[in-house]
Batch of 3 targets.
Target 1
Amino acid sequence: MSNLLQVHNSLSGKKEVFKSILPKHVGMYVCGPTVYSNVHLGNCRTFISFDLIYRYLIHLGYKVRYVRNITDVGHLENDSDEGEDRISKRARLESIEPMEIVQRYTLDFRRIMRLFNTLSPSIEPTASGHILEQIELIKKLVKNDYAYEINGSVYFDVKKFNQDIPYGKLSGRNIDELIHNSRALDGQNDKKNPQDFALWKKAEPIHIMRWPSPWSDGFPGWHLECTAMSRKYLGTKFDIHGGGMDLKFPHHECEIAQAEGIEKESPVNYWLHTNMLTLNGKKMAKSTGNNILPDEIFDGKNTFFKKAFSPMVIKFFMLQAHYRSMVDISEKALEASEKGYNRLLSALETIEKITPSSKTTGFDVISWKEKCYSSMNDDFNSPLLIGHLFDAVKFINSVKNKKKSISILDLETLKKSIHDFIYNVLGFRISKYSENDTKFEKNKEILELLLEVRNKARDKKDFEISDFIRESLIELKIELNDTGNGTNYEIK
Ligand code: AMP
Ligand code: ZN
């Protein structure tokens, strides 16, 4: 057990004591979603894990700048620069603008993240909003001789880079192996070597998402956006870079090469990678169809499980596993999590009703609190923390049953710590709506619709309808206030 925060650095493969570049400040970059379809629960697991990390750093008193991007251009169907841009393809199939696809799925992603009660990042930049920065990086890499232009596209020269700086540090891939195993893919004939990756791609005439550049009208390669945006908002060297394990190669390996090709030194101190959520033992993924969307599990309308589960129960299930362990989602496991989560909720109610005694018997609150911190300091070990919370639940129940007792001071410490860990660190939202978050969201949408109908009636001076809506809502204990800026409501 340690009092210092230790994090597992994928670059060294070891746990290391965390030391921020600037005292009490942390810069953290996490690769965000590619917004061409709805996020599935696997994606959510990664973002919930980084929310835990963000929340704990804040809880420890760090001022965290958390940057999580939105990939809205450049991510091709195949990670090796092959195929159509995922967003363009979807737009073409639906005959709408690519930015309509981007808007639809960005909004949906944010809604889902709110339902899981994750905090918004400090900055949420988009790849398409940082084309100039990406062009500037390419110019630098060309100048340093680590990139070359062919037929209007620009590629990173992995072999040339590797002569000066070793390539493959993060994923442990050896360049000779890579060269040997790479096959020439269609459309990659331009590359000098198959392991080279695109920094800029010349757009075909039908490609809508295109920008002018010194090389051609085209679009940036997928790996470049994260180098451009992390440098812009966190500087050339920052503390933490994260993402799912499947991004280690090629995405993060290429990010390192791009940054080192300019600065000659490693851009990130700690690389953190989350493990995968699996379904029926296989990785949840958009491409294979082996996935569940959050809404499908909230309303129970999916082919995998009979029962619906609330966002907080799913989050509890995910946090019961360490972020670096693989976890398989199943109905049985979710049912067990639901029981556990409810036990935690009822202990929160019980603790409010406990009468303190002159002394504490059978539980050492101070050492319990230390154990909670030690578990989180041990590479954000949320399952261990949850185990300690259940020790406290057991104690609270035995105080209720008069088998044990607690002093007033210990009771205050216990209450404050439990609240800190449950609400602030693990990020559960426990309110009267917690078990019914989706219903609450739906009710809100219905209420807003009703207000819109009432406004339309008022515009037409149909006061009979508008007053009927207002009075009916009062009966439901919802009070409307008409102001110069519109109508507010208050739930009494
Ligand atoms: P994408 O939108 O495909 O770029 O993925 C967004 C994030 O979700 C990335 O960090 C991925 O590594 C992560 N991710 C994808 N599938 C899973 C999964 N099954 N379990 C956990 N994380 C995942
Ligand atoms: Zn990225």
Note: Residues 438-491 form one domain.
Target 2
Amino acid sequence: MMNTSSLPENAKKAVIIDDFVEMAEFLRDLCAASGYVAKLYERTADVDPAVFLNADVLFLDLSLPETDGVQFMRQLGGLRCQTPIILISGHASCILSAAVSAGRESGLNVIGGLRKPFSIADYDALMTTLESAADQAASPLVTPEMMQEALDNNRIEPYFQPKIDLRRLEVCGFEALARLRLPDGRIVLPDQFIPTASECGLGNALTDRMLILSLDAWRDWAARGSDWSLAVNIPISRLADVQFPDRLEELADLWGIDRRQLILEITETELLDHHPTAMDTLARLGMKRFSLAVDDFGTGFSSLMQLKRLPCVELKIDRSFVSDMHRDRHSEVIVRKSIEIGHELGLIVTAEGIESQDDVDALRAMGCDQGQGYFISRPESRQQIATSYIDGFAA
Ligand code: C2E
Ligand code: MG
Ligand code: MG
């Protein structure tokens, strides 16, 4: 048994509620190895609310004596509990998924589910999600003034996440992801500032800034011998501007880039209907030989209909399916069928959210073309990319 008393005073706190004692002890050991001190309980009634309200993570078994996990989540919802929750269960994966959704609908911060018997890799993958959710929660919401100030003072920065060719296992491109650097040096993730930028009319300025900065980095890498593609996220609102294709063409010519290698990732495609000019713009971007990708495929915002409407060359399967593939048969089927649909339509298929070697192996076996995810690399700054992928190879 791991000696948790050797963990520091300020170690993070986990609460495990599971009446299967061996499983709870196994989980306690895994928690200790990731720096959490865990308290174990066999029944929900034994836990003082102050304990789980102040915990850094709560592992909750679904099948418990007296009050089961789903009933307990209802109580937690009433207490406005914001502790990250990981559900554990020996039930079929569709029941676990339904319980995860039920918890989220009660306003709880449910990170995901672990199906018993789970592997250390399953545990690690969920803890990675937990840590990134914690980083996100720690970063402040950005006000319109902060957004304007960040644009004025060049504190919007593209980070780049590599995409790999899953057959050759080589880097084939990078996706640019926006980051806002606060005056104190902290990095804010896009979910915390993109909604503000769009609401206060700075969305187009943000997109254009990201394009220019990413193209600049990309040209530098190309000058040093790389032939990677570059993907940039373009919101539908930018496409409402009919001049966007001409403006992008000018930029591409100025930077002397191969347009096919510039991939414009389009999300929120359901909004196309509210922006009649966006379809025009997409068609003209296709005619000008820029590459278009359907991002987050399979989620509410990106459906089969879009594959019929958009002149795209790439389909990116949403990470929620990819990271659940090993725990949930439904997600696995969705991933496999999305790859088939993409290939039948002549598209390159990219899987987002690869978090383990098992994900890589499964996706390769399914014939997926490209992959992206924390297991390969987290998004990194322009300088880090040059050091890791260019200077490193040259050395
Ligand atoms: P996206 O375009 O689908 O980008 C992928 C997101 O998944 C990134 O989050 C990336 O860090 C995250 N991710 C990658 N691999 C993994 C993994 O293995 N596990 C998990 N859990 N997550 C992974 P990020 O950077 O926070 O961006 C979130 C979203 O914000 C993006 O989703 C995109 O829709 C939007 N976004 C990012 N940059 C821009 C931008 O410049 N303009 C616009 N309009 N939207 C942007
Ligand atoms: Mg994207
Ligand atoms: Mg995506």
Note: The first strand starts at residue 12 and ends at 17.
Target 3
Amino acid sequence: LRRIEDADVHGKRVLVRVDFNVPMKDGVVTDATRLMAALPTITWLKREKAKVILLAHFGRPKGQRVPDASLAPVAPALADLMASPVEFAADCFGPEAEAAVQALQPGGVLLLENTRYHAGEEANDPDFAAALAKLGDIYVNDAFSAAHRAHGSTAGVAALLPAYAGLAMQRELDHIGQALNDPRRPVIAIVGGAKVSTKIALLENLVSKVDKLFVGGAMANTFLAAQGHNVGKSLYEADFADTAKAIMEAARTHGCELILPRDLVCAAEFAPNPDTQTVPADAIPANMMALDAGPETVDALADAIDACQTLIWNGPLGAFETPPFETSTVEAAKYAGQRCREGKLIAVAGGGDTVAALNQAGVSGDFTFISTAGGAFLEWMEGKTLPGVEAVTE
Ligand code: 3PG
């Protein structure tokens, strides 16, 4: 990895790819986690008297100048966090962007408009990349969560300028890289979520790397069905029974203990606070659906966590947005958080709903590291090379 600390940025125009794809409501940033993540790099560059030019995408406007995909509201939010000015240019290249860059003083910060307003971004068009490169002397990628995209601002421009990894990108790679490739053993992975079909590559890679793999969420129903159990009205993917069997077989081959729920909290329908029944995992009633893991499962999971020194977590263990089906996710997360506080566990988490689930459990601060990434976290854990990481690697 080429690290930003090794670059001479003094007085230079530094193009920094950040991920400001943040939750926004009525033009107000509602969760500043990704802005906070970018602060160390921005602050470092300011101190080094670089001219900081921030590049980012927002939403999926598909090359159209859609007003509600503007990054304009992010500039004041970032300025508030830093307690110093952030300029904004209404395009990411061309005369307006060039003038704004020209006006920037050393230590100044400029945010450019949504790169995805131009089709050249997602197409990784060489002319688009060249137009971006014109604005900078040095390129820094600090957007691990967008590094799975081979776009103009993550890959194209990186090939045209000296390219480095920012501090947030380094932090992500250091933590999740260690958890997956050089962990304190034994390692347990907890993978939840609705569908096996979206996590096949993840499960395949994990069984070859970790010592224990717990499969939870509706995904587990597909495994239970593959084992020949009746899953009643539960969500499951009949077409992926063979995939589930192959993953169980691969786990055996690699000596990875695959753990499924022992008991399940079921209801007749998926609605908030319905009547529930907790049953053994192999005895889901025909007229009910599994919506959360039960207390025996949480106990078994706690024992498995006790036996391990590293935890990799992706996905909820039940339908956690709908009460009371957050219970097992919250309990297991609290237990893992407590082990981290005691210094007995290194826990990293990321991907999709995971952060929301851990926030709900109130344990985000206890985990060793929580990735800002959704899809990029998954692809990294699948063992894939991410274009945005490759571009800043020796
Ligand atoms: C994310 O929010 O995970 C990243 O910003 C990537 O966004 P994308 O899935 O629209 O490329």
Note: The mean pLDDT is 97.
